Amino acid sequence: MFKIGSVFILSLFLFACAIPESKVLVDKNVNVVSRVYDNPVVLNIDTSTTNFILDTKPENKFMGAVKANVPVGKILTEYSQVYMSKAFPNFKEGGRSGSVEELVISLEVKNTKWWFNSVGKYGRVKAQLVVSVDLISFGNRISNKEYTVVKFDELRSMVGPKGLSASLSKSFSQCVETVYEEMLNDISKNGILASVLRERQNYVGQKQPVAVTRQIAPRKRPALPKMDSEPDIDQNIPRGQRAGRYDVAVVIGNRDYQVEGVPTVDYALNDARTMRNYLEMMFGYRPDNIIYLENATYAALSQVFGSDRDHRGKLFNYVKPGESRVFIYYVGHGAPDLDSGEAYFVPVDTDPQYLKTSGYRLKTFYNNLAQLPASQLTVVLDACFSGNSDSGLIFSGVSSLSLRAKQDYATLKNATVFASAQNDQVSTWYPEKRHSLFTYYFLKGLRGEADADRNAELTVAELEIYLAEFVPFMARRLKGNEQHPTVSGDRQRVLTVLE
């Protein structure tokens, strides 16, 4: 009776009172995982959205004639400062009229609804927000998506109009936070940035010649691969700019797994050996500065990268503070823990069913790398963390539909990270070339195929576009798989200079 009475009394009280305008309380400590894009980004929120106020009755009519009073547009606008400034260092609000911008993000509130019902002791507020996001690059729309988010807030005591107003504001603030988080995740993971970089190259090519350090005309977008005529990446490795005296590399290839039922990674050793050859011959790493492991055990990975208890592994000891540039390559199995969803490298002596006790946590890997005193860091991971592989699941008695690794890692400074696939995808092999598909095109791009402006300076952006061009296409062609490599870090960084 008390429960029903409390909610009933509250409804009568609110029926007779106007709900005051909700205060906007912005959490400035929201967690933005990492910078998404370093180049200029413009945010457009039109006046109608900025001034939008939810002033409707609840959808279920529980509160009778009472209308809400929530400045949803103001909440969306104020949270933009928090999220955009952290994700985009060169973010600005509103572009000049008629100007052509590299990336414009336009937000518009499309719909809002709210409910009040008798769930819980004192009732519960439910808020629904629909926001449309347009992404425009150099005048061309590259993405349009609507985000629909629903949040709840359970009242903790008998509240009046101000209390209900605060609850509504809290619920819609949580909706806005989720919209920004999902939007940033989509921009960073779904090939959006590769599209932006491609649009920029097309735009620059139309407007003016690209500045180059040697006089070679810019090439057109590369043609689709020819299956039988491509040169072998293992032969005639080109020379590039020499690595520094203190530059360090780690190369790990895990092929042969000791636990029965865990499939081999057929071309992992080919990939690792070829990568070592490129580091020595193309990048000029000293052989004694390359930590090279085949079929690495849990103990071997801990020895190189450190552990949860101590981050100072062999790699840490190889680094000269402030001078060493570090390059890390891993090819082999990855998988999520079946209970927690945490991502793990799978050492060759690990039973995937017991990753918590014998796998090497990806979170530990990134946490320890974050403490390296290196001047620059490049990480290349040719592993899928879905628990699946080109030879099938590495788990027994588990459906692949239930497997998805969580992403919860430390943010790396001065780092570029290449991953062969998204966390729920499979890294495909390329049997004809006797390499993994990703490593094959990663190295082929480094050889100069990705050097779109032919200036002998290969940037992260150029390699990202090249991988996005070929890997998804060939994964579908070879195996019918969806495989989309991901890249994070400074897209303008030069990876190598070819001789």
Question: What would your notes on this structure say?
Answer:
This protein is α/β, with parallel strands linked by helices and 499 residues long. The chain folds into two domains: 2-185, ABC-type transport auxiliary lipoprotein component (Rossmann fold); 209-497, Rossmann fold (3-Layer(aba) Sandwich). Helices cover 30% and strands 21% of the residues. It contains twelve helices and 18 strands. It has helices at 2-15, 47-50, 72-87, 161-189, 192-207, 268-281, 298-305, 314-318, 355-358, 362-369, 437-449, 460-479, and strands at 41-45, 91-93, 104-117, 124-137, 140-154, 248-253, 290-294, 325-331, 334-336, 343-345, 360-361, 376-382, 415-419, 429-430, 435-436, 457-459, 486-488, 494-497. The strands form five sheets. It has a six-stranded mixed beta sheet, covered by helices on one side. A hairpin with a 4-residue loop joins strand 14 (429-430) and strand 15 (435-436). The longest helix is centred in the middle third of the chain and has 29 residues, at 161-189. It is globular, with a radius of gyration of 26 Å.
Keywords:
12 helices; Rossmann fold; 2 domains; 5-stranded mixed beta sheet
- Briefly note the structural class of the backbone: alpha/beta
> What CATH architecture of the largest domain would you give?
3-Layer(aba) Sandwich
Number of strands: 18
Describe the biggest sheet? 6 strands, mixed
Radius of gyration, in Å, reads 26 Å
Give start-end ranges of low-pLDDT stretches. 12-16, 207-231, 395-406
CATH topology-level name of the largest domain: Rossmann fold
Compute the separation of the termini in Å.
Answer: 83 Å
Strand content: 15-25%
Strand order of the largest sheet: 7-6-8-12-13-17
Per CATH, the class of the largest domain reads Alpha Beta
